[in-house]
Amino acid sequence: MFESLSDRLGGIFDKLSKRGALSETDVNTALREVRRALIEADVALDVVRDFVEKVKERAVGVEVIKSVSPAQMVVKLVHDQLVEMLGSDAQVIDLNAPAPVPIMMVGLQGSGKTTSSAKIALRLQTRDRKKVLMASLDTRRPAAQEQLRVLGEQNNIATLPIVAGEGPTQIAERAINAAKLGGFDVVMLDTAGRTHVDEPLMLEMSDIKKATNPHEILLVADSLTGQDAVNVAKSFDERVGVTGIVLTRVDGDGRGGAALSMRAVTGKPIKLLGVGEKADALEEFHPERVAGRILGMGDIVSLVEKAAETIDAEKAALAAEKMRKGKFDLEDLRDQLGQMAKMGGMSGIMGMMPGVGKMKKQMAAANMDDSVVNRQVAIINSMTKAERRTPKLLNASRKKRIAAGSGVQVSEINKLLKMHRQMADMMKMLGKRKGGLGGLFGGGMPKVDPAELEAMQKSGQMPDMGDLSKGLPGGGLPGGLSGLPGGMPGLPGLGGPKFPGLGGMPGKGKKKR
């Protein structure tokens, strides 16, 4: 969502970094560009003015213009102000109340209330071990109650039985009573919406609030609606009293202005982000991390947390043991590619790595997307078990059979095998070193503390991926990045000359002559 804003700000700061020292004129010119970039990103005008004024107050001081790296100081000031605008500290859903805790979901029709209710319920049930009951109070939209029931069945979450003819307030009261009798910890109340804010809607929300006394009232807002989402947030907060905001469709191509404006305009924290269609595609909102992503600093903390959540520790330990013995077959490679898909695919991982965000356009130009990974998994699946475990068996006739089975050219199979050989050689080399495989696949390395990583990121100690790649064979990153729990899957097919810092990997780079 923040890609266009990130690109604009990145270009502004790149110009500053080419200057050895900055004058007040340089800073003013840069801030004018920042102002224009924020307005184009659909950030509210009042918020932009306040943002630029606060940065300017700090930026024109002597400590910036005479500092060792003035451009970096300006970036830091913009980063700090972004964090302040987004809310400084992350705030999660508050369950500190007598059970059952009522959570009321409000918002306009089509903003994603029902799916968000199911996502939050699943998150509370799996991560927080809470017993959750969902109830649909939407009697206006056809099949709204049925939709929530189906989502409950799919994700093994209890839903309130549907009784025809009941009004929203009656359903809400029945849900609270059912939760008390059933020993539930949380009740999700999915309310009705309208195409726009109107008086009947607000009266209905007020009646439900009086009947249930919700501990949390979460406003669900579509991030693609831009400034209108900010106006909706103000209306709901004035009439109902919102305690937090859930932004949906953050994975879309919106300009991001709603997210940047909403916290500043309403004063209410953004608590969760909907980042996809799947039931588990929900993230906590961390202002520090989002600001880092916008300014191209990456979000290594979220990447580590995602790795810890998605990677099977037992499977990882077995893989690490195989590596120590110098074994790395195509089944292991397939597992790595599967792990990459679970963590959001190649683009998702690259977007969170510091110093690598600028390579997205190069990846797109080289047709490097998640379809490449899917094709490589298809190739491996078209092999027999013996071929996957002993790639040396793959002669010309076997390759033709696999190519026909997976719908690719033989040349793609050769690229995959070349990548596998290089990764296997690297694993063998690392395995010979004392503790060389400690961080790969979770093999014997102590768990990474996200809080410690976040502190490093704040203090500027987090290394740039471009610097990390120096000195590695071929000038590139290994197929697994040490230090991440469960290991980081290799980045297949990235060509050396096109992607600085990833040159050790096979792919679309120029052939050696």
TrEMBL record:
Residues 269-282 form the SRP54-type proteins GTP-binding domain. Residues 472-507 have a biased composition (Gly residues). One of its GO terms (cellular component) is signal recognition particle. It catalyses: GTP + H2O = GDP + phosphate + H(+). GO terms for biological process: SRP-dependent cotranslational protein targeting to membrane. InterPro entries: AAA+_ATPase (IPR003593), P-loop_NTPase (IPR027417), Signal_recog_part_SRP54_M_sf (IPR036891), Signal_recog_particl_SRP54_hlx (IPR013822), Signal_recog_particle_SRP54_M (IPR004125), SRP (IPR004780), SRP54 (IPR022941), SRP54_GTPase_dom (IPR000897). Keywords: Cytoplasm, GTP-binding, Hydrolase, Nucleotide-binding, Ribonucleoprotein, RNA-binding, Signal recognition particle. CDD domains: SRP_G. It is found in: Cell inner membrane; Cytoplasm. One of its GO terms (molecular function) is GTPase activity. Gene3D superfamilies: P-loop containing nucleotide triphosphate hydrolases, Signal recognition particle SRP54, nucleotide-binding domain, Signal recognition particle, SRP54 subunit, M-domain. It comes from the Bacteria. Residues 461-513 are annotated as: Disordered. The keyword Hydrolase applies. Its EC number is 3.6.5.4. GTP binds at residues 107-114, 190-194, 248-251. The keyword Cytoplasm applies. It is a peripheral membrane protein. Composed of three domains: the N-terminal N domain, which is responsible for interactions with the ribosome, the central G domain, which binds GTP, and the C-terminal M domain, which binds the RNA and the signal sequence of the RNC. Belongs to the GTP-binding SRP family. SRP54 subfamily. Involved in targeting and insertion of nascent membrane proteins into the cytoplasmic membrane. Binds to the hydrophobic signal sequence of the ribosome-nascent chain (RNC) as it emerges from the ribosomes. The SRP-RNC complex is then targeted to the cytoplasmic membrane where it interacts with the SRP receptor FtsY. Interaction with FtsY leads to the transfer of the RNC complex to the Sec translocase for insertion into the membrane, the hydrolysis of GTP by both Ffh and FtsY, and the dissociation of the SRP-FtsY complex into the individual components. Part of the signal recognition particle protein translocation system, which is composed of SRP and FtsY. SRP is a ribonucleoprotein composed of Ffh and a 4.5S RNA molecule. This is Signal recognition particle protein. The gene is ffh.
